[in-house]
């Protein structure tokens, strides 16, 4: 067995690179599981091969999280409505039998308003292209 192993090792070392490549199985790309050739984007490689190409450092267009922005808008509007109603209840413009129930309306309004406002502000600044703001800062629900 040891002789078999040393014989196969010496045989593989004595084969040239072209003979080893010829012995390797090949795989057809045009077969069933591969990507169609018409959708592959190619780019010309640089003359000096340093292992890096410029294309790998380019950022694609930003992906806009529409669902998260819609949720932030909804939270902003509901929070604003609750704050307005709570303020009117607290000031007495809207008569209420128990004035102690107006404070929770204000608290819930503020708790719903703040995340909506925060994420809408990020979305607005990212859409205008301000430095330091991007759509990546908004949590996305499209996992």
TrEMBL record:
Parts of the chain that traverse the membrane: 68-90, 102-120
One Pfam family matching this protein: TMEM_230_134
Signal peptide span: 1-18
Coiled-coil region list: none
Entry keyword set: Cytoplasmic vesicle, Endosome, Golgi apparatus, Membrane, Signal, Synapse, Transmembrane, Transmembrane helix
Membrane-topology annotation of the record: Multi-pass membrane protein
InterPro entries, alphabetized: TMEM230, TMEM_230/134
Gene Ontology CC annotation, any one: recycling endosome
Subcellular location(s) per record: Cytoplasmic vesicle, Autophagosome; Cytoplasmic vesicle, Secretory vesicle, Synaptic vesicle; Early endosome; Golgi apparatus, trans-Golgi network
Top-rank lineage group of the source organism: Eukaryota
Free-text function comment from the UniProt entry: Involved in trafficking and recycling of synaptic vesicles.
PANTHER family in the cross-refs: C20ORF30 PROTEIN, TRANSMEMBRANE PROTEIN 230
Family: Belongs to the TMEM134/TMEM230 family.
Name recorded for this polypeptide: Transmembrane protein 230
Species assigned in the record: Coilia grayii (Gray's grenadier anchovy)
């Amino acid at each position: 067995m040891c002789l078999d192993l040393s014989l196969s090792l010496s045989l593989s070392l004595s084969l040239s690179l072209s003979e080893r490549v010829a012995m390797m199985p090949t795989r057809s790309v045009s077969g069933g599981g591969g990507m169609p050739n018409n959708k592959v984007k190619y780019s010309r490689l640089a003359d000096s091969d340093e292992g890096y190409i410029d294309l790998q450092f380019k950022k694609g267009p930003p992906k806009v999280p529409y669902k998260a922005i819609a949720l932030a808008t909804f939270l902003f509007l509901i929070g604003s409505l609750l704050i307005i109603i709570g303020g009117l209840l607290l000031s007495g413009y809207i008569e209420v039998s128990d004035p102690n129930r107006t404070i929770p309306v204000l608290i819930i309004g503020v708790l719903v308003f703040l995340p909506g406002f925060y994420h809408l502000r990020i979305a607005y600044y990212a859409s205008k292209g301000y430095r330091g703001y991007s759509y990546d800062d908004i949590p996305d629900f499209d996992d």
